[in-house]
Design a protein that fits this description.
19% of the residues lie in helices and 36% in strands. The chain is of the alpha+beta class and 216 residues long. The protein has a single domain, classed as Deoxyribonuclease I, Chain A, CATH 3.60.10. It has a five-stranded mixed sheet, with helices on one face. The longest helix is centred in the last third of the chain and has 14 residues. The two termini are 23 Å apart.
Length: 216
């Protein structure tokens, strides 16, 4: 599943405090704030969010359509890519420890020419979460933390569970959670129990937003 989300990005201030100046380009807005000049007003940021159970398959040769690059010009602010059932056989996992896994590699190769940088990634067996952002947003992404929660075999095995990444973006707290839960309707109670367990166990340090649902 692919979705695009837009939200207000920038320092929060009252309507009376909003500075009046000419519109700035996407890149000059954060730079104006960083350099100590007139703070840039909030503007709409676009997130491209992907969740995909890849079924142990290799990455396709071309992920242009998946990333929406065929209908845009690289103006998306952030990409959040959550994959489930990435190949986690022992020989494959050992290779991924030594080298970048193939899914991360193909995403970086496709996005880097458009000025995107990998902010953080988290892997737990077949679960993979990647967060990319435009390079000029990096000074305003703070407090990046990741968490993992195993729910397979009573919490001992990571074939099921959740991986997350939290951060503040221009002072706004955001958390992305990628889960792989028991399938089929007959397992809906177990699925809900696992999700509640993930929410309870995922706690972040040194932040006002300590749990997943505490974020904005």
């Amino acid at each position: 599943m692919v979705s695009r989300l837009s939200f207000g990005l920038g320092p929060t201030r009252s309507r009376e405090e909003q500075p009046s100046h000419q519109a700035l380009s996407d890149e000059s807005r954060p730079q104006a704030w960083l350099q100590g000049g007139t703070p840039a007003p909030p503007y709409q940021a676009t997130l491209h969010i992907i969740t995909w159970n890849v079924g142990s398959a290799m990455p396709p040769d071309d992920i242009t359509t998946l990333l929406g690059l065929n209908v845009g010009d690289g103006n998306t602010d952030m990409y959040i890519i959550g994959l489930q059932e990435v190949n986690s056989m022992i020989n494959k996992r050992l290779k991924d420890v030594l080298f970048t896994d193939q899914w991360s590699e193909v995403c970086m190769e496709r996005l880097s020419p458009f000025g995107y940088v990998l902010v953080t990634s988290q892997r737990m067996q077949g679960l993979l979460l990647l967060v990319f952002a435009k390079y000029f947003h990096l000074p305003f992404l703070r407090g990046v933390q990741t968490e993992t929660t195993r729910t397979g075999l009573g919490g001992y095995w990571g074939n099921k569970g959740g991986v997350s990444a939290r951060m503040t973006v221009f002072g706004h707290s955001i958390c992305f959670l990628n889960c792989h839960l028991p399938a089929h309707m007959e397992n809906h109670e177990e699925r809900m129990e696992d999700f509640e367990s993930i929410l309870q166990q995922q706690q972040f340090e040194g932040q006002a937003a300590t749990g997943v649902l505490d974020h904005e």
